[in-house]
């Protein structure tokens, strides 16, 4: 009688241990999966920000010449026409 119940206890312990380790493994796997997807989201978000920023910078530094009407980069030289706002 004792032998049967002892083996049942052993079986129960084994089952509980298996569930426990399986749960721990699942938690670790879930955590790694979540962190990986968060990193990927962060990366794509940073990529979008960077491309948006570079677009802003591009429009920022482009300045229209009032005289010749062309868009030139800020700090560009004069087009040569009189009254051109850019330094010749
Ligand atoms: Zn000009």
What does this entry look like structurally?
There is one protein chain. It is built from one helix and two strands. A hairpin with a 6-residue loop joins strand 1 (62-64) and strand 2. The protein has one helix spanning 2-61, and strands at 62-64, 71-73. The radius of gyration is 34 Å and the shape is rod-shaped. The protein has 88 residues and is mainly alpha-helical. The protein has a domain at 2-60. It has a two-stranded antiparallel sheet with strand order 1-2. The structure holds zinc ion (ZN). Zinc ion binds at residues 65, 67-68, 78-79, 81, 84, 86.
Q: What is this structure's SSE topology?
A:
Layout: H1 2-61, E1 62-64, E2 71-73
Antiparallel strand pairs: 1-2
Top keywords for this entry?
mainly alpha; 68% helix; 1 helix; 7% strand; two-stranded antiparallel ribbon; 2 strands; binds zinc ion; 88 residues
Quick structural gist:
The protein is mainly α and 88 residues long.
CA-atom Rg in angstroms: 34 Å
- Give the bound compounds: zinc ion
Helix/strand class = mainly alpha
Give the neighbour order of strands across the main sheet.
1-2
- Calculate the mean pLDDT score and round it: 81
Helical proportion?
A: 55-70%
Proportion in β-strands? 5-15%
Major beta sheet summary: 2 strands, antiparallel
Low-confidence stretches: none
Query: In DSSP terms, counting alpha (H) and pi (I) runs of 4 or more, how many helices?
Result: 1
* SSE topology string: HEE
Oligomerization state:
single chain
End-to-end C-alpha gap: 106 Å
What is the molecular shape? rod-shaped
Number of strands: 2
């Amino acid at each position: 009688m004792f032998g049967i119940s002892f083996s049942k206890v052993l079986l129960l312990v084994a089952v509980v241990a298996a569930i426990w380790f399986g749960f721990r493994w699942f938690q670790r796997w879930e955590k790694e999966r979540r962190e990986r997807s968060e990193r990927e989201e962060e990366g794509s978000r940073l990529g979008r920000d960077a491309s948006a920023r570079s677009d802003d910078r591009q429009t920022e530094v482009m300045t229209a010449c009032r005289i010749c009407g062309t868009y030139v980069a800020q700090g560009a030289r004069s087009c040569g026409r009189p009254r051109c706002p850019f330094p010749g």
